[in-house]
Write a structure and sequence with these properties.
single chain, mainly alpha, Serine Threonine Protein Phosphatase 5, Tetratricopeptide repeat, 2 domains, 9 helices, 79% helix
């Protein structure tokens, strides 16, 4: 049996699917007014603030409130990671991932994939490869495993190109 907040939340989620963001926003606000610790509503409010208003501070506040209210609820962890990545706040993303790896309800393959992305963006191709391999070890989806294998191949290619570039720069310098 669902309670009133869950029913209203499901209505708001349907509003989101129908691009009725105002209606959804008002429903989430109503839920949080009466039940300030309702993690799914905080998560969805954060998503609206991030995607519809580009208000990253409000989005972050709601994602953190959702995680604090229900540490096992996985969605705000994903959204906060995306927010840090969008803002190129890689130091905070790395700290966030260190917390994520300890959350039992989060898919560890996703966490190691994100670590791999961070390392790859930094040009640390060996570390990225290690993390993509860890993602494979924690994954049970064949399509994602193929994607992670492609990520490893991309890192090998980038490492080769970076080495060639370094040789060229030495010759010129």
């Amino acid at each position: 049996m669902t309670n009133r907040f869950e029913e209203l939340y499901l209505e708001a989620e349907a509003d989101i699917r129908n691009s009725s963001y105002r209606e959804a926003f008002l429903k989430y606000e109503s839920i949080l007014y009466e039940e300030p610790g309702y993690a799914p509503a905080h998560n969805s409010m954060g998503w609206i603030y991030k995607t519809q208003f580009d208000n990253y501070e409000q989005a972050k506040m709601h994602f953190l409130a959702a995680m604090q209210s229900n540490p096992a609820y996985p969605h705000p962890y994903f959204h906060l990671a995306a927010l840090y990545n969008d803002l190129e706040n890689f130091a905070e993303l790395k700290k966030h991932l260190a917390k994520c790896v300890k959350v039992p309800s989060l898919e560890k393959a996703w966490v190691y994939y994100r670590y791999g992305m961070l390392d790859e963006m930094a040009g640390n191709y060996d570390d990225a490869t290690k993390n993509y391999r860890l993602a494979i070890l924690h994954c049970f989806n064949n399509d994602k495993i193929r994607d992670y294998q492609a990520d490893i191949e991309r890192c090998k290619t980038k490492k080769e190109i970076a080495a060639e570039q370094a040789v060229e720069e030495q010759k010129e310098g």
